[in-house]
Amino acid sequence: MAEQEGGVRAIDAHGVIGDMRTCALVADDGCIDFLCWPDLDSPSVFTALLDGDEAGLFSIAPELPGARRQQLYLPDSNVLQTRWLDEEGAVELTDWMPVQEDKHALPRLVRRIYAVKGAVRIYVRCAPRLDYARAETTARTDGESIVFAAQGQRSMRLAGSVPLTIEGAAAVAHFTLDERECATFTFGCAEDEQVMQEDPEHCLAHALAFWRGWCRQSHYRGRWREQVMRSALVLKLLVSRQYGSIAAAATFGLPEAPGGDRNWDYRATWIRDASFTVYAFMRLGFKEEAHHFMHWVGDCLERSSDIAHKLQIMYRLDGGRELPEQELDHLGGHGGAKPVRIGNDAFKQVQLDIYGELMDAVYLSNKYDQAISHRGWKTAISLIDYVCEHWRSEDAGIWEVRSGDRHFLHSRLMCWVAVDRAIRLAQKRSLSMPYARWLQAREDIKEDIWTHFWNHEKGHFNAVLGQDSLDASMLLIPLFRFVGATDPAWLATLDAIKERLVCDGMVKRYDMHSTPDGMHSEEGAFTACSFWYVECLARAGRTDEAHMEFEKLIRYASPLGLFSEELDARGRHLGNTPQALTHLALISAAYFLDRKLSGSETHWQP
Fold first, then answer.
1. β-bridge mates for residue 502, sequence order
2. Element (H, E) at 189
């Protein structure tokens, strides 16, 4: 059901649609309550999910108050269908965003409602509130459509196949559909002629052909294919067709704990998350996305003038470097969770691990796709030289703590990965490099980890230098092949993580009491870490345990197979959604576990 306690729409009661420029969330009551337009990181047009209906929504629903509601995606597509089933009638609402040939074209929403059975009354209400619901939005009639306008904002238009009227600043329609009749509504830019001229049948057929054609590129035929392909389709929605960047999630401001203050904006490209996404795409056979992301990263680096700051942890989707954090005090927050933030001051942080994730993606892209260019290798050399000089430094770590920089094992590990992958790439492609210096740096980092991050008393690795602490990012140690997955030292660490951070397969990032992060509220279990845990179990030979934990996890997915960032104790979704890191971790775990269960070793060997 779309509502949980207090009348707030549940995060996991939503589907997502998009055109690889922006995304909209569609609740299972037929309400679009979140849409940023025209780009994913533009100001929102509908923001009811983060406040209430007065913050903007687009609702279409039949008057069937006792009906059962369902949502499903049309097979192998990002076309969403919401259904109402009742003795008196059955209705289908199909939602999609056309994928246009011109990747710079402004997005449109198309919504078609169809009476499957019986004559049914339908109610439509479209009430955009422009500029994060900050701008006073007005509505006026323009021919047979309604135009919404606000000072300083691009005007929007709603056109429909039935008459529309105005109530306040909203467009409404109240009409009856007889059995097998349908009505269509298109929402987009007021100046976009296609909004008025949309041919819904042709548009839908084109959208389905695009998504199904893309899915056919995948060579994955293993277990859980439906869940794996849904995750791939989610990741594809987060890829920018304009730039090649990959957003971390489609939303901002959704809380990591009910009523908490961990409410961040994830509509940006984290180098770490996007590099992992490249890995997931390539595993499934999607190489174009990897190629475009690498090109985007190269452009970001070329626009940087200072080598010491050549690589930020995150960028705007267009490659911009500034993401100043703001609080939207006028929004009440999802379930009262405040403040609602846009932008993210973490862009100023130093996180040394990003060099390792990026170089691993570069290495895999070169191994399974295209060879690195001369200019690309020159850039890589400068980045690895920077790592060689700074790997001993403190940083904010993978979880972007706001309580001061520290020496994190994960950051040290990924510095080792950066140098290791650069050496391997140079050897594979016969590229020039400062061979002795890099070999020495790789050995020095490895020795430092074993000397300073191994807890001799407890018999496992420590997450933070000088502290008896554990962190779920340590699950990446064997996944990046720093130690063998069955090494006794690693197995002891895995068991310690299981004891202190895992509950029924759900994995906490860290113990916030022993590792304070500068925030005041609690948080849920981190879903991506839970899938990392599954893969670690499988690689350790604990296949039955891994299989069982994976089956539990995929049942925490929404009814549509989507995942947000975190899970609460009851398995309900928390945080921004859908989250790329979770879905790519699912793909990786499913891929390896399937091969393990089939008795074949994965051919993906860095």
1. 507
2. strand 182-189
